[in-house]
Amino acid sequence: PETELLDEDLRANTNYYYKVEAFAEGGDIVGPAGGPVRGKTDKFQAPENLRAEALGPDTILVQWDPVDYAEGYLLYRSTSRFGTYDPIGDITDTEFEDTDRQPNTLYYYKVASYEGDNQALAGPVYARTTKLEGPKNLQAEGIDYSSIRVFWDAAPNADGYIVYRAESSGGPYKEISDTGDTEILDTGLETGKTYYYRVTAYM
What we know:
Radius of gyration: 32 Å
Helix content: under 10%
Largest sheet: 4 strands, antiparallel
Strand content: over 45%
Shape: rod-shaped
Number of strands: 15
Mean pLDDT: 92
Number of helices: 0
Structural class: mainly beta
């Protein structure tokens, strides 16, 4: 008969006690119990080298080193270091791209490794998304006596643009267009009058 046993699926960082009794072929106990002896499982490890890096105005990459015996990782996010952390993922990889974030915003992350009922939490770490760049090379040119073409260079990562117009450089500016293009034709204007424009990008 075997003289050893591997006891599996136990809780991490927990003491267990064992006794061993010898029995004959018919099942009768033939000797006193040996023990008890104590064994303690290893402490389940949290992810190490947890880090976060902004990849743009709407994406943060969260990475960590793999944990031995881990079945997966639970990810949590907050906009405050000591605030509520919301669950955002349950994955088996050791990196996660957190998308659809707001530009120029600080985000905090925690990651828990797990195996069965065992969990170990790491963090927080943080990263700030980059600022959304505004349109560049904004220009305006008269097309005819009542129309002005306003155009600009595309801003990286922008989903669209809001165009504002004023009758003086100091404003007030009024929204006149929300477009996905990089130009508009402003029509119905007063002949001989000067107009001023501003354009903001959004995502």
